[in-house]
Amino acid sequence: MARKTSGLAAIFTDEAKVLHAAHKTREAGFQKFDAISPYPIHGMEEACGIKRSSIPYVTFIAGMTGMLSGLLLTWWTSAVNWPINVGGKPFFSLPAFIPIIFELTILFAALCSVGALFYHAGMPKIDPPTIDPDLTCHKFAIFVPENDHGYDVAKLEKMFKDLGADEVKKVAEY
Amino acid sequence: MIKRNQLVLGNKSLKDITDDICAPVESVPSKGWVGIFLVSKTMLLFYVFVLGMIVAHGMGLLGVNHPVGWGTMIITFVFWIGIGHAGTLISAVLFLFRQKWRTSVARSAEAMTVFAVMTAGLFPLLHTGRPWLDFWLFPYPNQRGPLWVNFRSPLLWDVFAVSTYATVSMVFWFIGLVPDFATIKDRAKTKVRRAIYGALSLGWRGTARNWSHYEMLYLLLAGLSTPLVLSVHTIVSFDFAVSNLPGWHTTIFPPYFVAGAIFSGFAMVVTLMTFLRIGYPEFRDYITIDHMEVMNKIIMTTGLMLGYAYGAEFFVAWYSGNPYERYVFMNRAGIPGTSGDYAWSYWMMIMCNVVIPQLFWFKKVRRNITAMFIISIFVNIGMWFERFVITVTSLHNDFLPSNWGNYAWSFWDGAVIFGSFGMFLTLFMLYLRFVPAISIAEIKPVLNVGRDDHKGGH
After folding, report:
1. Theoretical Cys-Cys bridge with B246: which of B184, B273, B325, B347, CB 3.0 to 4.6 Å?
2. What ipTM was estimated for this complex?
3. Closest residue of A to B146, CA-based?
4. Do the beta carbons of residue A168 and residue A10 sit within 8 Å?
5. Coarse DSSP helix, strand, coil percentages of chain A, rounded to the nearest 5 percent
6. At what angle are helices B343-350 and B369-388 packed, to 10 degrees?
7. Is A109 at the interface with chain B, CB within 8 A?
8. Is the dihedral of CA A93, A99, A100, A101 positive or negative?
9. Do residues B379 and B355 lie in contact, with contact meaning Cβ atoms separated by under 8 Å?
10. d(Cα B256, Cα B312) in Å, to the nearest integer?
């Protein structure tokens, strides 16, 4: 979704209709199309054939990294680099280091997950092209890029009109 | 079948929701907003002056001295951190429990969290006495050895816990705001507004692929914030519990502090939501009496937990057979034979935190805006006194009578507390002006809950 292409957009004002239309678009063999909505729609991932997000893997690996960093940091500074006897406790006093290790696990996991969203969604981006300003308010859209397999303006326009689109328009770039 | 109450009243359409919630951001502020803002901003300026005096003259301005070495700053720090916890509880824990009512209040509660943590964070930094050396708190390679921080100290755990909490709750809040900033950008009538909110929205487009990742991220952040919020107040309680002082050295502290934090935080949410309902009448359809009632129930429940903790502390003090531990608790309650200098604060705390919230057993009280507002103020006061009781009564009469003393409360102690509200309120008022106070993208999917014409939603 990184490159901008021109294509055809159908605009709907009903959640159920756009969900149905997404199903139909996928059944018609389109693969690169996307549905735009002001809020997440229940069942839209299945309708568009979107796989489960891969962010949890990032979270897990980042959390593990955070945990190991915390462990290494506390161990190396307290037991290796400059060991100091604090109240007769062992230099590597693991139970006392757990809060630090835990907080770093959470911090790394949270920030890297956000980073993963930014990567997947292509954010931050300055002024991306918009199809219709109401798409973040009360309208829904399906956008089919012109490089998608079987792209045909006349056929698509008829299909979307039949599916109850309020408006079908050509988009110069999205 | 038992019917669910509607989460959003007034048969709104999707467009109505956007219009209603964006209205305060897009219109000239009302006289009420300007009035409260000017008052809180004046309080903030006063706060800046007070903190400047404390930094310039040193901690001696406050009443902390031997033996009461922890005073207003630590008390108020715990107070504000505790308030912050309700925001994360609403936004993360209730999200994991699929409590749909949370959507209306989550945004403002989270804003409250962020601002309360910002207010709280200043106190320990200033309480070090030499705040210009606060960077020593972080473990960085230095030319003093390198001399590292002591990772076995609860005070250092606090540095990590509070800074992680502040970072993660700000990120969580901002991620929730991104789609709403995009909404405001798309509605913008001027170029400047479009540019500013466009930048804040980070180029959000709302495609199905984006939403798929976004929802997953939101779930993960909620899952990460839940143990985080519990850990933060646990670690704050460790500041006390890990020491050997009677009255502090108890294992009940972590759950007791967390329950207290949720209790005080929900009281602050109720206080702020009553203001929101008065200031923005259009929000009454979103933050309904049902929402307020649920929060009052949580206040009552956590208040009972606190009452139990207060009782358990006394029982354990007696059961331990430790004379110092027994003395501290008898002294708190002012039982004859002890100094009882701070018994008034103890009974104030019991009154505000345990007795007054019992009024919420009555449905009429739970659903009455004036009543809940007054009770929430009492809870806020009571929770400040709880931290006062814990901090001061344990320190002032500990082991050796020759080492006893009282807290020398000064004008500056009061000024710090007063001023901190200025900081919090200023931030909150600015938030109401510039940020949609209810999540637009989250409230739309719950629009049909309880609506008869939509089969009651799913």
Report:
1. B325
2. 0.92
3. A82
4. yes
5. 50, 10, 40
6. 150
7. yes
8. positive
9. no
10. 10
